[in-house]
Specification:
mainly alpha; single chain
Length: about 80
């Protein structure tokens, strides 16, 4: 597996986990969870291979997203 394919695989898995956590924690729909995630700076950082955020745990990445949604952190 190439590095690019590995990154995409890990990003997709994290996306799946983050959407599930968002739905559980906020009670939002799947569509809304995807929209919140895709529009976030956290997802932009997750998509940037230079940050290597895609190798972190879903709990850690969710904590960044949660802080961003609360407005308590600037990524």
């Amino acid at each position: 597996m190439t590095a690019q394919k590995r990154m995409e695989f890990l990003k997709l898995k994290l996306t799946e986990d983050l959407v599930a956590i968002l739905m559980e924690e906020t009670g939002c729909s799947m569509e809304d969870a995807f929209l919140r995630l895709y529009r976030s700076q956290t997802y932009a950082k997750l998509s940037d291979p230079n940050t290597k955020l895609y190798i972190q745990s879903s709990g850690y990445v969710y904590s960044l997203l949660e802080d961003e949604m609360k407005g308590t952190v600037i990524l």
